[in-house]
Write a structure and sequence with these properties.
- The chain has 3 domains: 167 residues, 3-Layer(aba) Sandwich (Rossmann fold), CATH 3.40.50; 171 residues, Rossmann fold; 124 residues, Up-down Bundle (Dehydroquinate synthase-like, alpha domain).
- It is 49% helix and 17% strand.
- The protein has a 7-stranded mixed beta sheet, sandwiched between helices. A 5-stranded parallel beta sheet has the order 2-3-1-4-5, with helices on both faces.
- Helix 12 runs parallel beside helix 13 and helix 18 crosses helix 19.
- Bound molecules: nicotinamide-adenine-dinucleotide and the ligand O=C(O)C(=O)C[C@@H](O)[C@H](O)[C@H](O)COP(=O)(O)O.
- The site of nicotinamide-adenine-dinucleotide (NAD) has 31 residues, from helix 11, helix 12, helix 13 and helix 19.
Length: 552
């Protein structure tokens, strides 16, 4: 709740969190506990309603019936969602009203946290029975509770973006967990052909691994690089504690791990260790490692459950989301692969504590890309914090003022990514905009034999794309200059002179956006307005190359 919220200055009031869940789950008790810990207000919808109707809910039910009660509830909830900024607990049946669900959806879409409090059924039933005064439980209370639970559980899951299990916890521990989880950034990914999933961003989100994996898998292959051993040890401990049999698989670092030979070695291990279709893979590392792990998950038995745990800035903001998985071949980058949606993404800020400064900066290349193609606020944040970002130090990161800035940059960039992916999973049009800077960037990576980092290559690629857009009459000169200036301030490269034009051109023809002999780029008309630049004037293609080269 101490999230960086510069973009929300002047925004209307809204609850810090809304709690939903079954009768007896502890919504009021834990909501009050949370509000005390945070020093903010608490409101209980049932109490508000009783105050408004001037009688107890059972009495109102008896006199006017459920429909009348639900109407009062709907009005009360709608008004409170727009005017109250504390913790708000709803009655168990409130989310069953379609208009309340819509209001909650709108609240969550604008960054609100809807917590589904999932208590142990036996405990909750006992509490609900003890509390009395619940007209919905008239008759055999336990049987009624169970029947309502079966109806309501899917609805709670649909409206909530945070699910907290409180079984066996003291109220204080449960409230602390709820606060911790509401502090996480969540981006929901959904759309045609996508099994919906969440990208969770925050300190400690690796702890959700068992929740995302679920009860299905017996064996889990934890694929990682040695560079993130500290974090994979933590993930392994979480998985073992949750009862999974973990196969620890370390792969070669960076692009050396993103090959079909490495994938083949893992397929053999999965076969030897008896991995079935209900087992799972967790990929933990930079984008190269998670691309490879996702590819193995997509191909093993034609697809098994996959959880993506990115540990570099670039992997968090880009490679984690959208389901592109694959390997490189000697002919080019990412030429073999598949679109394979993960069951969830856990971007744990704690993993950034071991990230070297130059790899953090590389990640800013893809962050800036998202600013250029869709969210100018990202560029403003980059400008405002360029010096601190450039000086990133993993060791001090978690306690530094940079943490909320980076958390906001990650969440915003993932939102940009999700916007494109949700509308166009298989990259038929809109999603291609995410490839801004990549046509030239991928050629650099290939020609530099992957000694150049991806984000750095994309930075130069964006300069090339801006120059090309300018030369073809689409982009003004000040925006091209701004591109050079911003990338330079962030410590990213803006020029390259590693090969001749013909070699670059040949590779750009092999880019996945190319069609037949036609070169296709993503250009920019202005910040936030990318466009398809198909078959541009060959002179401009060459001249843009010369401009990028001359700076070197
Ligand atoms: N699937 C997608 O949509 C997508 C999107 C963008 C990029 N990518 C791919 O991702 C790769 C680039 O990702 P990257 O920049 O993360 O490269 P990377 O995976 O090579 O990681 C960079 C380096 O940082 C190390 N590292 C990562 N996290 C660390 C940590 N927490 N502590 C210490 N060291 C750490 C890695 O071991 C590696 O040496 C490229 O292969 C690119 O093609 C894929
Ligand atoms: O997700 C996408 O779509 C992208 O284009 C994101 C890119 O930033 C990313 O580098 C991706 O790996 C490129 O994919 P490719 O299909 O061009 O190889």
């Amino acid at each position: 709740m101490a999230r960086h919220s510069r973009h929300e200055a002047g925004a209307r009031r809204r609850p810090a969190a809304v709690i939903v869940g079954m009768m007896g789950a502890g919504k009021t008790r834990l909501g009050k506990e949370m509000s005390q810990m945070l020093g903010i207000g608490f409101a209980d919808a049932d109490q508000q309603i009783e105050d408004a109707i001037g009688m107890s809910i059972p009495k109102y039910f008896a006199r006017h019936g459920e429909a009348a009660f639900r109407e009062v509830e709907r009005r009360t909830v709608a008004e409170t969602l727009g005017s109250f900024d504390g913790i708000y607990a709803l009655g168990g049946g409130a989310p069953m009203t379609p208009t309340v669900r819509e209001a909650l959806h709108d609240y969550a879409e604008h960054g609100g946290r809807v917590i589904y409090l999932l208590a142990d059924p036996a405990e909750a039933m006992e509490r609900a029975r003890r509390g009395g005064g619940r007209p919905m439980l008239d008759g055999d209370a336990d049987a009624r509770w169970m029947a309502l639970y079966e109806q309501r559980d899917p609805v709670y899951r649909q409206v909530a973006n945070v699910i907290v299990r409180t079984h066996g916890m003291t109220p204080k521990t449960a409230a602390r967990k709820m606060i911790e989880m509401t502090n996480e950034g969540i981006v929901h990914v959904d759309g045609a052909g996508i099994e919906p999933y969440d990208v969770r961003i925050g300190e400690g989100v690796l702890n959700h691994l068992p929740d995302v994996l679920g009860a299905g898998p017996v064996r889990v292959a934890l694929i990682h690089t040695q560079s993130v051993q500290r974090h994979s040890d933590r993930a392994r401990a979480i998985l073992r504690k949750a009862g999974y049999q973990v196969s620890d698989i370390a792969i070669p670092d960076a692009e050396a791990g993103k090959t079909v030979q490495v994938a083949d070695g893992i397929w053999q291990r999965l076969g030897n260790e008896g991995f079935t279709r209900s087992d799972a893979i967790v990929g933990l590392g930079g984008g190269a490692c998670t691309d490879l792990a996702g590819f193995v998950a997509a191909t093993w038995m034609r697809g098994i459950r996959y959880v993506n745990c990115p540990t570099s800035l670039l992997a968090m903001v880009d490679a984690s989301t959208g389901g592109k998985t694959g390997v490189n071949t000697p002919q080019g980058k990412n030429l073999v692969g598949s679109f394979y949606t993960p069951a969830g993404v856990l971007a744990d800020l704690r993993t950034l504590t071991s990230l070297p400064n130059d790899i953090f900066i590389e990640g800013l290349g893809e962050v800036a890309k998202s600013g250029f193609i869709r969210d100018p606020e990202i560029l403003t944040i980059l400008e405002d914090h360029a010096d601190e970002l450039r000086a990133f130090d993993g060791e001090t990161f978690l306690d530094s003022p940079l943490k909320p800035v980076v958390a906001e940059l990650i969440e915003r960039t993932v939102r940009v990514k999700a916007h494109h992916v949700c509308a166009d999973l298989k990259e038929a049009g809109l999603r291609e905009f995410l490839n801004y800077g990549h046509t030239f960037g991928h050629a650099i990576e290939q020609l530099e034999h992957f000694r150049w980092r991806h984000g750095n290559a994309v930075a130069v690629g964006m300069v090339y794309a801006a120059e090309l857009s300018n030369l073809t009459g689409h982009l003004d000169r000040p925006t091209v200059e701004y591109t050079y200036d911003l990338l330079d301030r962030l410590g990213l490269p803006t020029s390259w002179n590693g090969a001749g034009f013909d070699e670059v051109l040949a590779l750009m023809h092999r880019d996945k956006k190319a069609r037949g002999n036609t070169l296709r780029f993503v250009g920019l008309e202005e910040i936030g307005r990318p466009f398809h630049l198909d078959d541009p004037d060959p002179q401009a293609v060459r001249e843009a190359f010369e401009r990028v080269r001359q700076q070197a």
